[in-house]
Write a structure and sequence with these properties.
Length: 285
């Protein structure tokens, strides 16, 4: 899953930066629901509204990437009755033998509490210059997905399949984890890439890890958690193709994620939580 960005020639480092922009757009939805026709599960747990900061570092070098650094600020606010708003800002610097480039990606999404409608807006700067902008709305209609794009082009796109949207993924994977399920598959729409396509995803859920008693954040020392590995595939390649992107994270029972990994194939990044603030939201009536 990569896109072509203007300027800077055909540098491999540039294409890797593009994949990081896509990964930032996917970050809020890096969780998966059961395969088959999508229906919103009952919210068995309350997802914690929160703002978290993660410092990025190079986990594994490769290709022309010899070092990397950055930061993610992730904000999730909402409830089943009000809907869910996610704001992500990811700033990443990739360093190669020929120099460095910095990618600045901002993602805002809103999903209604019934998992029937989703809006998205992604803006990416490369070394301070605009390179990619995606904006649109999607809704489940007549058993399929309708996407109304504003950027990068004005278009209406129809898919016969009704995929999962991101926020309900968190609820679904927590429900699956608590039920002892280990492998989940789903078609997913999160507004990534150019905002017009559905991705196939495969999640592997590890055994319960128990509370992280060594965490520096007190509320996370009392929550159950599971290690999740989530692979993204282009459509039709999940059976025999290699994933374009693999995310790993510890998923806590309140929806908070820690110990992030982002694997782009020839290199990988790690994300370490450095702060978290829990935000107040009113209960559903």
């Amino acid at each position: 899953m990569s896109v072509s960005l203007p300027s800077r020639g055909s540098s491999p480092l540039l294409s890797r930066s593009a994949r990081i922009a896509i990964a930032a757009a996917m970050l809020g939805g890096a969780l998966v629901a059961p395969s088959g026709a999508w229906s919103a599960p009952q919210e068995a747990v309350a997802l914690a509204s929160h703002r978290a900061v993660y410092d990025l570092s190079l986990l594994r070098g490769g290709g022309d990437v010899i070092d990397a650094e950055g930061r993610i600020v992730y904000e999730f606010v909402g409830s089943a009755c009000e809907g869910y708003t996610t704001n992500v800002r990811q700033l990443t610097t990739l360093i190669g033998e020929a120099g460095a480039m910095t990618l600045d990606t901002n993602v805002t999404t809103f999903e209604d509490g019934e998992a029937g409608a989703f809006s998205f807006h992604t803006r990416t700067l490369l070394d301070g210059m605009p390179t990619m902008r995606t904006q649109g709305e999607a809704e489940i209609i007549d058993g399929g997905l309708r996407i109304l794009l504003e950027e990068p082009r004005s278009d209406e796109v129809m898919h016969a399949e009704a995929p999962a949207f991101p926020a309900q993924h968190i609820i679904a994977i927590l429900d699956a984890a608590q039920g002892g399920e280990a492998i989940l598959e789903s078609a997913l729409f999160d507004g990534g890439d150019e905002g017009d396509d559905i991705h196939d995803t495969l999640a592997v859920i590890g055994a319960p890890l128990g509370p992280d008693e060594g965490s520096a954040f007190s509320r996370l020392t009392r929550t159950q958690r599971w290690r999740v590995t989530l692979s993204y595939f282009d459509r039709g390649e999940a059976g025999d193709g290699m994933p374009g992107y693999v995310a790993g994270f510890d998923l806590h029972e309140n929806g908070v994620t820690t110990d992030l990994t982002m694997d782009f194939g020839d290199f990988a990044l790690a994300g370490t939580m450095t702060s978290i603030e829990f935000l107040e939201t009113g209960p559903c009536p």
